[in-house]
Amino acid sequence: MARHYGLDWLRIGAFALLIFYHIGMVFVPWGFHAQTAQPIDWVAIPMMAINPWRLALLFVVSGYASRALLLKGGGLGGFVRSRSARLLVPLLFGVIVVVPLQPWIELTTQHGYAGSFWTFLRHDYFGFAKISGILLPATQHLWFVLYLWLYTMLLALAAALLGGRSLQRAFDAVFGGLRLWLLPMLWLVLVSAWLFPGARETHALWGDWVAHASYLPAFLFGFGFAGSRTGFAATERLWRWAAAVALLSYALVVAIEYAWPVNVPTPFPYGHLFAAARGMQGWSAIVALIGFADRYWNRNHKWRATLTEAVFPFYIIHQTVIVGVEGALLPYGLHPATEFAVLVVATVAGCCAFYLAGREVRWLRPLIGLRANGPVHPPVRATLATEEA
């Protein structure tokens, strides 16, 4: 596989957007672990610009990275061991150390929990039971890491069953040309509008079929796309058209959301139309972003390697910082603009401190998602094809 800097930048940008998206979750009336005293309906409109594709894109890029890592050597067994260590160790660390503050803030600010954080840790968090509907201990935002590990193991199992035979030709035949855009888009429309209409992701692993139906195919697509010359050629031809369709679909989503905002029942057939438009917007945006990254971002920069390494530690810590800071701000009744500014500054500072401190300590590196034996400062030429991320 040739190195592709554009996919590095796309991954960095997708995770950065995800962090700002979770800050936005504080202000929308959708329900979050910590929310401003007076949620603002209109904030949902810009949030919906990235909502349909933000996570699917991350799974596509993760599938792409998995292909590069599998080809690095060490065989299938080495791939399984490496990915399990790189994903399960920070997942376990996150559940035990990073996450607990989030459910405690949610319970104290939204469900009347009266115990201190220390009491919560000693008596409740590791109780393997539900409190006010919250199952403890919790994965919270780290569900993504758990799902990614599961999909990686399913991929390894499929590779073992194939016995070294490649399905690349089949991928290129199925997703050649216009089909690369249309087939996944139709599948997402089918999932959101007809198979699971109105369903919400639970992130509980078992029974979260709407998420698995969306993200497992996206992950497998990324794996196949990584070795597809015809796939990259198709995105080069289609990305501008896909961008236009994504914008038109988003306009329809906004119109329906404006007519029937949060907590207002959407009459038939507009609910199905809303779900279908989201599916079209989601995959069209992914095709457009990959094509744009391939066309304009496939070049190196002195900051790219460090940002590539920082992405996973940032992801591990960011939501705990957001929820913790918002929990501390709530009693002061700040103006939403001030609240937002404080959250942005605190989240960026907290993520940077977590990464910069953790990368300097060798025994901490695996806990925050970095290679234990890797350099503290990544090599200039490192990319998705050489970085275990």
From TrEMBL:
Domain Acyltransferase as annotated: residue spans: 5-355
InterPro entries with a match to the protein in the record: Acyl_transf_3_dom, Glucan_succinyl_AcylTrfase
Transmembrane segments: 12-32, 44-66, 87-105, 142-162, 174-197, 209-226, 238-260, 280-298, 310-334, 340-358
Assigned keywords, A-Z: Acyltransferase, Membrane, Transferase, Transmembrane, Transmembrane helix
EC number annotated for this UniProt entry: 2.3.1.-
GO molecular function: acyltransferase activity
PANTHER family xrefs: BLR4337 PROTEIN, GLUCANS BIOSYNTHESIS PROTEIN C
Protein name (Swiss-Prot/TrEMBL): Acyltransferase
Organism for this UniProt entry: Sphingomonas hylomeconis
